[in-house]
């Protein structure tokens, strides 16, 4: 399984080390340094359901890391074993990440929005030994879900909360309350190599089941520098990201970056932007990263009830185009500059806007490349717009168990095809001009795996052919809603039929269509390929006409 990954070219790796983009240490060394230099500094301040849940100093974080590592040893977790962490933004995320590193295991975080089908696939494809879930969150019984889909290869089910209901291991009793550090002291274990795989991030992209993107300690470290370097962050900074932290951004910028620089990470497990502003005011938050739809919510909440957010000096957004009015609204209401970046799970942040750029640059550009990343636009002669390719120190090692799929994204010189189209922005950076026609991105930044949903829907009675396309979300026009375009075979199913069927197939709800359009035939090019852009235009017009 692990031999499906591709290490960096040795000469390029040597250059990454020489330039300081990679290092001989890991985040465990950063934790040691923080415990030595600022043991009482808050490493984590966490909120669940709007109320304070737990604060951990760096000394306490280190102690829990040792305890959790001992718990993993007791469960038989060893080097390169995979631990799936399927949790909301709760306090145990950071010590679990670090505990996995301490025993040489690989942590595989999974966002709560993933459904039964996807969880089962992740557990099977990663060969996970342990999976940790909440008993309940946002009305979903995760303990039962795990019990229902767990493959025989999964050795241990762990539940935070009511574990007895599904016969799982109780996280509180086993991990938190038991002094495993005394029975299994891990100090004698070798520290992981900085080029060892540390993190598996599952991304659906546009096709198939979720792919496991493999990152090392060093590729994560390089990715984290996009914020720490650009904003000159340090031990006095306080970071808050309202997204699920199981994404690359949350894992990198909230969890790993905070430990790397000895900063404080504030976590909230809701999408309440009023709460976010309260936490900025209460804890002196200095950096917030969030998708544009969250930034809009922050602006609206501050307009409705102003807070003292004068500590906030860094505000960055990504995952969707930034409308010009939002840049102005942020400056007017929040009194701060809005920056943007362009990145992806495979590479982290590739480009970022900077203070030296014009004030409204986030609405006009996706920024210039970070120092350790190269970009290239492959355009036809005489054209400016072309395919965006990248390579650099934060690039992943590939897709676990899917070497061919990753190799198909690379050329002979290691350039990775991002799947996006771009043009030069006139200042050494890029402007993303359009997504590939089959890419659908919700306002939450979740990519909808078109082919996988289409494949599942093809089993529904009344469907001859089906294609998923995106159309503008009226609440966030730069993002997508999902339409299933159906060529019927008999009586065509309606939206309720389609959703009920996908629910029965245990597919993640965020992948379900918001609309159904029935057509006599699909538009195709001379080679017989479906012209998705034509379908997108048709659906966009139909959706606008129905409002």
Question: Could you say which overall geometry the principal axes of the C-alpha atoms support?
Answer: globular
Annotation field: number of helices: 17
CATH architecture of the largest domain: 3-Layer(aba) Sandwich
CATH superfamily of the largest domain: ANL, N-terminal domain
Describe this structure in words.
- By secondary structure, the chain is of the alpha/beta class.
- It folds into 3 domains: 243 residues, 3-Layer(aba) Sandwich (Rossmann fold), CATH 3.40.50; 138 residues, Rossmann fold, CATH 3.40.50.980; 107 residues, GMP Synthetase, Chain A, domain 3, CATH 3.30.300.
- Helix content is 33%, strand content 26%.
- It has 17 helices and 28 strands.
- The strands form 7 sheets. A 9-stranded mixed β-sheet has the order 2-1-13-12-14-15-16-17-18, sandwiched between helices. A 5-stranded parallel β-sheet has the order 4-3-5-8-9, sandwiched between helices.
- The longest helix has 17 residues.
- The radius of gyration is 23 Å and the shape is globular.
- It starts with 9 loop residues before the first helix and ends with a helix.
